[in-house]
From TrEMBL:
Keyword Hydrolase applies: yes
Ranges of residues in domain Fumarylacetoacetase-like C-terminal: 30-229
The name this protein goes by in its record: Fumarylpyruvate hydrolase
Protein's organism: Rhodopseudomonas pseudopalustris
GO MF term (any one): acetylpyruvate hydrolase activity
Domain of life per record: Bacteria
Alphabetical list of Pfam families matching this protein: FAA_hydrolase
Alphabetical list of SUPFAM superfamilies matching this protein: FAH
Keywords: Hydrolase, Metal-binding, Pyruvate
């Protein structure tokens, strides 16, 4: 569709890199799973008996491997959360668990950057988490790898280090909900579609970041992601 069909120029299509090829994966929506690793639930003092739940980030909040991410406004406590990223090639409503993985195009590693002080304040006021979770460049993601090549990872080390010191570590097998269950449950809430990505929760070890911090994280078999925290916006 040409620009002549719009009153302003259409915004650029957010997209993620794909390992080994020049083509990219177009991002439609970003869904995130809250509280999907038991030790992370405990470190934040939340009730581990509550099931995980879902929240969203905007598609244009993705950032590529190697990006410098300015320290965001309004916060004094931005924290890192390394996550397995699931990229969908198709979707639907009320997807059964036993066919959920048929909708997956591939996987990658990402970081759910969080303005923790704002998230905590919102939770205490029983307000939406958006101010704490959705901000510019808050969803760095590394290059995706297709499931047709690597399968569907259900175990493997997931980790994050800051300035060379390991902070987060866990295993995909520790997820309370696995990928198929996440897709199935999320599809009860919203009709999923091609281009949706899902960030599947983080293991324990989340902590504050400051300008100048260099982050490296990874998931076994998927590669790594590196970003730097820049000066305040």
């Amino acid at each position: 569709m040409s620009n002549a069909n719009h009153v302003i120029a259409p915004p650029a299509q957010p997209a993620l890199a794909v390992h080994g090829v020049s083509k990219t994966f177009p991002v439609r929506r970003i869904w995130c799973v809250g509280r999907n690793y038991l030790e992370h639930i405990r470190e934040l003092g939340n009730d581990e008996r509550n099931p995980p739940f879902f929240f969203a980030k905007h598609a244009d909040m993705v950032a590529p491997d190697g990006a410098t991410i300015p320290y965001p406004t309004l916060t004094k406590d931005m924290q890192h959360e390394v996550e397995l990223v699931v990229a969908l090639k198709s979707g639907g409503l009320n997807i059964p668990v036993d066919t959920a993985l048929d909708h997956v195009w591939g996987y990658g590693v990402g970081i759910d950057l969080t303005r923790r002080d704002l998230q905590t304040a919102s939770r205490k006021k029983e307000q939406p988490w958006e101010i704490g979770k959705s901000f510019d460049l808050s969803a760095p993601c590394g290059a995706l790898r297709p499931a047709s090549e690597i399968g569907h990872p259900a175990k493997g080390r997931i980790w994050l280090s800051v300035n060379g010191a390991e902070r987060q570590k866990g295993d995909l097998s520790e997820m309370i909900w696995n990928v198929a269950e996440i897709i199935s449950r999320l599809s009860q809430q919203v009709q999923l579609g091609a281009g949706d990505i899902i960030m599947t929760g983080t293991p324990a070890g989340v902590a504050a970041l400051v300008p100048g911090d260099k982050i490296e994280c990874g998931v076994d078999g998927l590669g790594t992601l590196k970003v730097t925290i820049g000066k305040a916006m």
